[in-house]
């Protein structure tokens, strides 16, 4: 018995050794064949399995293979892939040939991945190498100028603010136009920009239809970093720098400039003269404006705004063993606001691991934990920063901000009797939040041709906002104070269960997938606000008056069936078809489900015999696609008849009608055509061109109702938005030597937008009477305001255009008028750009690299609303005014060709009109990065694997004719904002950073 036990133990001890003997550990380096530099991020995969790794910053890798017959596949964007049999080699070095048309690179598309050569749809991938020097804290800014057709607008410089993103124009009136984000193959989710490995943008329906009703505005797929090669590897990044506010052309007058400017407006009419000439009453001016004011010069703008530090620390560990791949990353980001007392902090932790039970079964866990907190601001304090006069001193003798109101004993020159510095010191605007996402993915190769893939995510998030004004502040909250708090909680999950198949029969390949998807979530909010706070307390239980309590609860469910089939013949002819059925709780039972089909085809002509041996053309592919996507983004319960509860009837609770039912409400759907060509020449030039036609039908709108109904509007499906456009992407390598390389890429998108099928004109009016009209044959976001004709040269009066019509409404003539009440609103331009794009260059010399990224946009109109205050024609002498580079042109006498009316004859001159409508075109140097990779010999002395230092500058300079703060303004309509309207916003920032990247 003892001998049997001894032999059994000996067998168990030797079994791992025998198993280890059957394994082969392979390591090596992947380099560029032209400059012998190591290539980071290369995919190294054992052919026919999911076992693989990626190279480190120096191109090194290590993995374990099961036999000498295994074949390693090396692939990376921008290089030709290679397949190498392991044999008896333990060290396997590979040199990849550069190619701008790497057709074997694997691209994540939809719920699957494809080689680039197999793509039949319009897709753009931004690789890790292109993102290497990007220092922004969000993915949107990373993509600006790098993807044709992608409009990225940084509409605010608030710490932590994310840009607004649009893909191929705006295709809906009420539905969200932000692209769908997919993180690691699952819809939604959070991520740290430091963890991003690559980004793929899906543009046409053939690529996006797999995501159905959530992909109406396009899809952006974010792939995060995973395990690096071999033993545990550590990577770190340290970023420190400074941000400065960018005011555009909004340079405000100093004390002397304002004094001289106001002197011009102290005029009395000379009653003996009939031609409206005037004289300056200097005695009156000096009696009311002492000469000492010229020397009083407080700079409100640069006191409330100023330079602010920014810092980012990132550290990760990754590695793999025979069975296990793992990656853990952590980062801390802090951005002090350029506005006083504003701040943003974010702490992020991400981990992923994959355990390979065998070559056929693997289990992946991903977890992301994110927490943030910050300090915000009150809009009115920005308003005062621009408009308060430089003649006011906001500090007392001890240097403390003084309290100011209408009863102050000292003279306060500014119109509003408020010291914003005092308000900022006596108010608090904080927020905090957190998110947790957990993914569990299972991959099982059932047979050599059939795989089961299960991807699942559970998510929970919360946020809390706190807005407080002390009773000490001036204005409406003086003596009472104000407190508002709101909390929100959201939680839900996503689950996709798919079967994937892949058949190969001779020259024929058939692959695809089928499965189901479920997505559900709940969103809860609770808010309270009120006044009557005792001094020193900021808790809700001490609110004594004007108490308001609000809340919301919303539940959403989306169930889907997903299918796709791909056919390939001789790796030259490709055909793809997909169909998705979505069922949403946002629609009535009769229309709860909708189908979204797509079909696409491609012909890889460069594989044909007549081009296969061409020395010039190394890639030529034609693509054609058609598909349908939809949207359910109208909010919950739009189809129901709703009632609101009230206690206004004898203090008893009652119900009053709130919303008419819409029992036939159905899906808003986008029908998309796309044709494209991909061309590669001499391994130095890559060209991609696409034309598209997107028609969004059955728009979800609130349609006017007859007066007899008792309601003004009801939700219905009417109208159509059409976007047509052309996209061009060009990448070239003008110079490539062993020591020096120059890579350049250029992209441009030209888009036109048109409305049709609306039952009547829709006019939306925002703040200050700024209106936009939606009319058949017109554009979205078309400004509908009176047309400014300038200044009457004889009287100095402002002029607008009056449109004359007959009884039938037909235009019979046009004439100038100085009576604003007679000025006729007209279509004067759209906030949508006609074209946009980017031009990016990279220059590399040995270990030194210089990147310059630019972005341009043209053909749009921006309403510069703040000009009505800072160019107010003397209407409001207690607002500070803007300095014009070319000086002022004020009417003074008959015959003057002036741009500003006479102050005595300028009634209503600052009313809403095209006077403040500007050309929103601009060209910006978005990012400049200079980096240097420290030589290997020195780095090894520091016990490091790599060390890179870099200097970066963001928002370096903007070239524009725009007059105002910034042509980059919001493109999202809501209750508070109108697309294309620039107001006193939190300015964007210029950013200058030092970066240190290292690994060991």
Secondary-structure blueprint:
Elements (H helix, E strand, L loop, with lengths): L1 H20 L2 E9 L10 E4 L5 E3 L5 E6 L5 E5 L6 E4 L8 E3 L9 E4 L2 E4 L7 E4 L1 H4 L7 H5 L6 E4 L10 E4 L12 E4 L2 E2 L8 E7 L2 H4 L10 E6 L8 E13 L9 H9 L3 E3 L8 E3 L1 H7 L11 H5 L3 E13 L3 E13 L6 E14 L4 E15 L3 H9 L32 H6 L1 E21 L2 E20 L12 E24 L2 E24 L13 E25 L3 E12 L8 E12 L4 H4 L4 E15 L10 E8 L2 E8 L8 E14 L3 E13 L2 E5 L8 E5 L2 E17 L3 E17 L5 E4 L5 E4 L7 E5 L1 E4 L6 E8 L5 E7 L7 E6 L4 E11 L2 E11 L2 E4 L2 H4 L46 E3 L2 E12 L2 H6 L4 E15 L20 E2 L6 E11 L1
Parallel strand pairs: 1-7, 13-16, 49-53
Antiparallel strand pairs: 1-4, 2-3, 2-5, 5-6, 8-9, 10-15, 11-12, 15-16, 17-20, 17-54, 18-19, 20-21, 21-22, 22-23, 23-24, 24-25, 25-26, 26-27, 27-28, 28-29, 29-30, 30-31, 31-34, 32-33, 34-35, 35-38, 36-37, 38-39, 39-47, 40-41, 41-42, 42-46, 43-44, 44-45, 47-48, 48-51, 49-50, 51-52, 52-54
Task: Please sum up the structure shown.
Residues 891-912 are annotated as: Disordered. InterPro entries: Beta-barrel_TonB_sf, CarboxyPept-like_regulatory, Plug_dom, Plug_dom_sf, TonB-dep_OMP_SusC/RagA, TonB-dep_OMP_SusC/RagA_CS, TonB-dep_rcpt-like. The chain is mainly β and 1000 residues long.
């Amino acid at each position: 018995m003892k001998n049997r036990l001894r032999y059994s133990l000996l067998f168990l001890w030797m079994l791992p050794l025998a198993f280890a003997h059957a394994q082969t550990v392979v390591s090596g380096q992947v380099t560029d064949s032209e400059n012998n530099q190591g290539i980071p991020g290369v995919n190294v995969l054992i052919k026919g399995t999911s076992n693989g790794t990626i190279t480190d910053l120096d191109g090194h890798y290590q993995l374990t293979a099961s036999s000498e017959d295994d074949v390693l596949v090396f692939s990376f964007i921008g290089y030709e892939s290679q397949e190498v049999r392991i044999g008896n080699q333990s060290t396997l070095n590979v040199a990849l040939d550069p190619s701008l048309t790497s057709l074997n690179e694997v691209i994540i598309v939809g719920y699957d991945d494809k080689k680039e050569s197999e793509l039949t749809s319009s897709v753009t991938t931004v690789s890790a190498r292109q993102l290497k020097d990007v220092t922004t804290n969000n993915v949107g800014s990373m993509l600006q100028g790098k993807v044709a057709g992608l409009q990225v607008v940084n509409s605010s410089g608030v710490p932590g603010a994310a840009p607004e993103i649009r893909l191929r124009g705006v295709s809906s009136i009420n539905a969200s136009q932000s692209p769908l984000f997919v993180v690691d193959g699952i819809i939604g989710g959070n991520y740290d920009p430091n963890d991003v490995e690559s980004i793929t943008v899906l543009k046409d329906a053939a690529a996006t239809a797999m995501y159905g009703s959530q992909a109406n505005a396009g899809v952006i797929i974010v792939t995060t970093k995973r395990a690096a090669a071999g033993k545990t590897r550590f990577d770190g990044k340290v970023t420190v720098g400074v941000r400065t506010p960018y005011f555009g052309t909004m340079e405000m007058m100093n004390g002397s400039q304002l004094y001289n400017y106001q002197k011009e407006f102290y005029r009395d009419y000379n009653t003996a003269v009939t031609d409206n000439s005037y004289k300056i009453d200097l005695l009156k001016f000096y009696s009311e404006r002492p000469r000492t004011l010229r020397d009083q010069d407080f700079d409100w703008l640069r006191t409330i705004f100023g330079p602010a530090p920014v810092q980012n620390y990132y550290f990760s560990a990754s590695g793999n063993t025979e069975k296990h791949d793992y990656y853990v990353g952590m980062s801390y980001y802090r951005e002090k606001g350029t506005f006083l007392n504003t701040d943003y902090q974010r702490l992020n932790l991400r981990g992923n691991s994959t355990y390979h039970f065998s070559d056929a079964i693997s289990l992946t866990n991903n977890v992301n934990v994110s927490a943030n907190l910050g300090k915000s601001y009150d809009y009115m304090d920005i308003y005062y920063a621009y408009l308060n006069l430089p003649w006011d001193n906001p500090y007392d003798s001890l240097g403390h901000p003084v309290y100011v109101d209408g009863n102050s004993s000292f003279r306060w020159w500014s119109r509003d009797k408020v010291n914003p510095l005092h308000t900022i010191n006596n108010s608090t605007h904080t927020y905090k939040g957190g998110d947790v996402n957990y993914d569990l993915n299972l991959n099982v190769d059932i047979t050599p041709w059939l795989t089961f893939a299960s991807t699942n995510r559970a998510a929970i998030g919360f946020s809390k906002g706190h807005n407080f004004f002390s009773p000490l502040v001036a204005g409406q909250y003086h003596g009472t104070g104000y407190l508002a708090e709101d909390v929100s909680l959201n939680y839900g999950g996503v689950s996709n269960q798919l079967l994937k198949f892949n058949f190969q029969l001779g020259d024929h390949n058939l692959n695809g997938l089928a499965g189901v998807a479920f997505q559900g979530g709940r969103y809860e909010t609770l808010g309270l606000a009120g006044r009557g706070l005792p001094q020193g307390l900021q808790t809700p239980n001490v609110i004594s008056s004007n108490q308001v309590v609000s809340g919301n609860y919303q539940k959403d469910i989306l169930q889907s069936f997903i299918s796709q089939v791909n056919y390939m013949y001789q790796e030259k002819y490709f055909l793809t078809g997909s169909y998705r059925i979505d069922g949403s709780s946002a629609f009535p039972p009769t229309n709860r489900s909708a189908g979204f089909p797509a079909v696409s085809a491609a012909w890889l002509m460069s594989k044909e015999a007549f081009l296969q041996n061409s020395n010039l053309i190394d890639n030529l592919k034609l693509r054609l696609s058609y598909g349908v996507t939809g949207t359910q983004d109208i909010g919950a319960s739009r189809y129901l008849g709703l009632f609101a509860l009230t206690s206004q009837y004898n203090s008893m609770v009652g119900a009053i009608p709130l919303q008419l039912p819409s029992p036939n409400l159905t899906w808003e759907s986008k029908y998309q055509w796309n044709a494209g060509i991909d061309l590669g020449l001499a391994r130095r030039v890559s060209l991609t061109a696409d034309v598209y036609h997107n028609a969004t039908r059955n728009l979800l709108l609130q349609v006017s109702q007859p007066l007899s109904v008792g309601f003004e509007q009801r939700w219905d499906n009417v109208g159509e938005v059409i976007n047509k456009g052309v996209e061009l992407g060009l990448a070239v390598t003008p110079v490539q030597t062993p020591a020096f390389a120059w890579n350049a890429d250029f992209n441009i998108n030209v888009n036109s937008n048109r409305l049709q099928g609306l039952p009547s004109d829709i006019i939306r009016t925002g703040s200050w009477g700024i209106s936009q009209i939606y009319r058949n044959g017109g554009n979205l976001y078309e400004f509908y305001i009176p047309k400014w004709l300038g200044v009457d040269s004889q009287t100095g009066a402002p002029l607008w255009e009056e449109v004359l019509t007959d009884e039938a409404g037909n235009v019979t003539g046009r004439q100038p008028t100085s009576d604003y009440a007679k000025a006729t609103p007209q279509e004067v331009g759209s906030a949508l750009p006609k074209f946009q794009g980017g031009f990016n260059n990279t220059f590399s010399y040995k270990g030194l690299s210089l990147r310059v990224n630019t972005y341009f946009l043209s053909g749009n109109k921006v309403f510069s609303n703040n000009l009505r205050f800072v160019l107010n024609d003397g209407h409001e002498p207690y607002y500070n005014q803007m300095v014009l580079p070319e000086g002022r042109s004020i009417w003074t006498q008959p015959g003057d060709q002036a741009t500003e009316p006479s102050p005595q004859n300028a009634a209503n001159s600052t009313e809403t009109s095209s006077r403040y409508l500007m050309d929103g075109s601009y060209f910006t140097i978005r990012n400049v990065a200079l980096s240097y990779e420290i030589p290997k010999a020195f780095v090894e002395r520091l016990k490091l694997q790599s060390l890179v230092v870099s200097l970066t500058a963001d928002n370096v300079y903007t070239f524009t004719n725009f007059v105002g703060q910034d042509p980059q303004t919001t493109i999202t309509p809501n209750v508070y904002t109108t697309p294309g309207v620039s107001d006193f916003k939190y300015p964007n920032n210029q950013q200058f950073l030092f970066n240190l990247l290292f690994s060991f």
